[in-house]
Amino acid sequence: MASLLRLPPALLESPVLRLRPLPLLYRQARFCSSHSSPRPPPSAAHPPTLRFAPSPTGYLHLGGLRTALFNHLLARKLGGKWLLRIEDTDQTRYVEGAVESLLRTLKWAGLDFDEGPGKDGGNGPYFQSQRKEIYDAHLQPLIDQGRAYHCFCTPERLAETRKLLQKRGDNSTYDRRCLGLGEEEVKSKLERGEKSVVRFKSSSEGLTQQDLIYSSIHYPSLPIEDFVLRKSDGLPTYHFANVVDDSRMGVDVVLRGEEWLPSTPKHLALYRALSLPPPSFGHMPLLINPDGSKLSKRAGDVRVEDYIAKGYEPEALLNFVALLGWSPQGGGGGASAEAGGAEKQLQGQETDVLSLEEMVEQFSLPAINKNRSTLSPTKLLFLNRAHLQRKLAEGADAEKRRELSERCARVVGESFGVGNVEEGTLEAGYVGRVLEALKERIHTINDVPNLGASFFLPPNLDSPSAKQLYKSVKPEAYRSSLTSSFEIIASLPEEAFASPTHEAILDPLNELVKTRGKGPKEVMAPLRHGLTGVKVGAGVPATIAVLGRERTVARLKEALRRSEEGSL
């Protein structure tokens, strides 16, 4: 038996949505128009058509990315398809470049829609601003049938009307003054050029709807709200265009955020008025900040582009937003993984590390929970490191490794300046070896310039860190150790620098440590100083392997020269 909807208190307090216990009959049957039968649930036997329909009023944020991802996962899991539609009817809020940014971001994430801008599947245009004739064709029958009507009220009169209704304790938003206008009067006003909107003649009756995620939802009887279908500029409102487009494009499953729950009665009423079968709706819980507040730019990064700029992997960010409300098979989930912020607390959650293909395989609607999901920066860093290590693992996809290396090379070039790095250090093969050496230390590729600067720039032996490291070993021991190490490294076979284990480099250095009898520090500290000039970084054998014989020998010679002349 389906369970009753349990929503967050903030939404339950909304006057638009009230819940009450439902009879069994209502809990088992979702709302449908009297002109259609309930759709079968999405399954491989009934592959769904879904859509992601953002508005170009800003840039894609984490919530939008999750919506696109869940639509993608369900479509691929069940052999269906999903389309991209741009809902740009509100031209006053249009942001220049937002559409281009959206397309770039979806491509970066690997979310390949089946239809949409630049990929016509027979349901275009995919911009609502280009579909005016389609909306007009659906609107006129509603007017002819008395289900919609022209309203000529000015903004000033509407504002005054709302005040009067509120004073009377009436929650309605309009007094239906223009509903009683005769056909000839309406025609005359239109011919005189009077501006009008078209309103939907609403009903106050309640309804019950079966949600794919929240189960049964009861919408009680509401105040009359004859909402606008077409604005005075001739463009449709979101509600009308949304319903018409979903029907015309064959969308039979709509996955969207819970903030659209209060709008669902309007959409269902429109489907009924238009004699169209409504899709199955699934509303996903909101994403919130660790302090419980709604996501906002003031509280931290929200735009996906912010995360791209910070060097996160697309697989990791998709994995992260998927776990915000969805629990994979055997996974720990990620809805509220902050829990103190220490990364060690995330140990044991390796089953949460999933590629896009693995998420498709495991995805199911029942695994989406109904609780709001808290962002955890710690969890994202954990996942990003895990995905980096996957890409760098032995036997990993060579193309993904090359692409990662090229992105990292761009980050390094932008950080240091392409003309300032040592020759050949921005080549993909070399950068790949750097990433391999640093994979246990970095969380994102943006960490590489800070933690691996010495792989790209000559060591700064005059820095405070280098001077402090130099003082940790006596000058005589420093020079003696470097001389012996130099001889060992110069005599190593070429294959020693290519070994992934670095044993061919480490073993003779360990023998040197035993011979000198003073402990590893007397050998490794001078090497680290001469090669990097910093105390912390990749292991010395790994550093030697990445730098290669020629660069290693040159750096050690320079450090030895400066020590002998006393300029360190």
TrEMBL record:
Location of the Aminoacyl-tRNA synthetase class I anticodon-binding domain: 427-560
Keywords, alphabetical: Aminoacyl-tRNA synthetase, ATP-binding, Ligase, Nucleotide-binding, Protein biosynthesis
Top-level EC class: ligase
GO cellular component, one term: mitochondrion
Domain Glutamyl/glutaminyl-tRNA synthetase class Ib catalytic: from-to ranges: 50-330
GO function terms (MF aspect): ATP binding; glutamate-tRNA ligase activity; tRNA binding; zinc ion binding
E.C. designation(s): 6.1.1.17
SUPFAM superfamilies reported in the protein's UniProt record: An anticodon-binding domain of class I aminoacyl-tRNA synthetases (SSF48163), Nucleotidylyl transferase (SSF52374)
One GO biological process term: glutamyl-tRNA aminoacylation
Stored Pfam families: Anticodon_2 (PF19269), tRNA-synt_1c (PF00749)
Chief place of localization: mitochondrion
Highest taxon, organism lineage: Eukaryota
PANTHER family associated with the record: GLUTAMATE--TRNA LIGASE (PTHR43311), GLUTAMATE--TRNA LIGASE, MITOCHONDRIAL-RELATED (PTHR43311:SF2)
Family recorded in the similarity comment: Belongs to the class-I aminoacyl-tRNA synthetase family. Glutamate--tRNA ligase type 1 subfamily.
Name of the protein this chain belongs to: Glutamate--tRNA ligase, mitochondrial
